[in-house]
Specification:
about 350 residues; elongated; 2 domains; Rossmann fold; 13 helices; 14 strands; alpha/beta; seven-stranded mixed β-sheet
Length: about 350
């Protein structure tokens, strides 16, 4: 009798294990599906759905707000998800993370850049990883890439006085100083003027052949146009603001940009073909969300955290949950598009 009971118990355990194994992986997807960020949220949702495979997705509108983020987190806990992908807004993810932490549910975000999200991890214990670059990653890339490229050139550094422009310029100034390099001209200019002839004249007088501009796309385009009009040979460079929509003045050939790649140009071609076959345009957050779901599935499957093979290449996180390598690269504008400059 005892042997029969033991056999029955063993069979019940096997059956329970089989049932658990048959349960699909449940992944929560948090995205702004209403309001001004809806288009981006729909991109995120489409990329996640395309990469889901046999995983079951629970899609929730986080409304890009603290209330929406908290409500989404509670919905994920109730749904029993194992991991969450998404969030594009700081308020939403910061409201969600304490709730998800208490439920031991990790989060992979392809969109939130705020430094404190991972910097505070030792204090908060938040289970967060991100594919988006940190807020300070662009400045670090400018400080790393341009001094190497311009070490033998006469260069100038100007900024528009905004927090964004000034921080980029100050990062570059500090970096060249550490290398014992000195700009021939440093100044703050007045942005959003119809022309920048006065600034260009001063740059030419200083002998600058290369100019980093901490500012927006149109100001950089105007400077390059005015330099060309005055017969001055100068290469202008800026940050990822150069990818902004045109204000009317075209970007000059040879303009340099420290920015992120177009993900559709670096992604696995088979994934791109698969997305298009499903009627999904691989733009915006589609591919980062696709990669985030690939990582989520690997994490849930017990893949070692040292690295993950994704549609965007092999990715890995550091101890804080940030990408262990910067995604920023140096590009040159040629034939109507920014093309990556080979490493020097």
């Amino acid at each position: 009798m005892l042997r029969a009971r033991a056999a029955i118990a063993a069979l019940l355990l096997v059956a329970a294990a089989a049932a658990a194994a048959a349960e699909p992986l449940r992944i929560g997807v948090a995205a702004p599906l209403s309001g001004p960020s809806e288009l981006l949220g729909r991109q995120l949702a489409a990329g996640a759905a395309a990469a889901a495979g046999d995983a079951a997705l629970t899609l929730v509108d986080d409304r890009c707000s603290a209330d929406g983020g908290a409500e989404a987190a509670r919905a994920f806990v109730a749904a029993g998800v194992a991991i969450v992908v998404g969030f594009l807004c700081t308020d939403a993810i910061e409201a969600a993370l304490p709730i998800l932490k208490d439920a031991a549910i990790p989060v992979i975000t392809p969109g939130v850049r705020t430094n404190r999200l991972t910097d505070a991890k030792p204090q908060t214990g938040w289970l967060v990883y991100r594919l988006a670059p940190r807020a300070d990653a662009e400045g670090e890339a400018v400080a790393s890439l341009l001094p190497r490229a311009w070490r033998d050139d006469l260069f100038a550094i100007v900024d528009d006085g905004t927090i964004y422009g000034r921080e980029l310029a100050e990062r570059l100034r500090a970096a060249v100083s550490r290398l014992a390099l000195k700009p021939v001209f440093v100044d703050t200019f007045r942005p959003q003027l119809e022309n920048q002839i006065g600034l260009v004249v001063r740059l030419r007088k200083a002998g600058a052949t290369h100019v980093f501009v901490g500012g927006d796309r149109d100001d950089i385009a105007i400077m390059a146009r005015d330099a060309r009009g005055l017969g001055a040979t100068m290469v202008f460079a800026g940050g990822e603001a150069l990818r902004a929509a045109s204000g009317g003045v075209p970007i000059a050939e040879g303009t340099l940009m420290v920015g992120l790649p177009e993900w559709s140009e670096v992604a696995d071609p088979a994934v791109i073909d698969g997305l298009r076959g499903q009627g999904v345009n691989p733009e915006g957050y589609v591919l980062p969300a696709y990669a985030a779901v690939e990582i989520a599935r690997a994490m849930a499957g017990g893949t070692p955290s040292g690295g993950y093979a994704t549609a965007l290449g092999d990715l890995a996180f550091d101890g804080k949950g940030d990408l262990d390598r910067t995604p920023y690269r140096l590009f040159r504008f040629a034939d109507g598009a920014f093309r990556e400059v080979e490493s020097q």
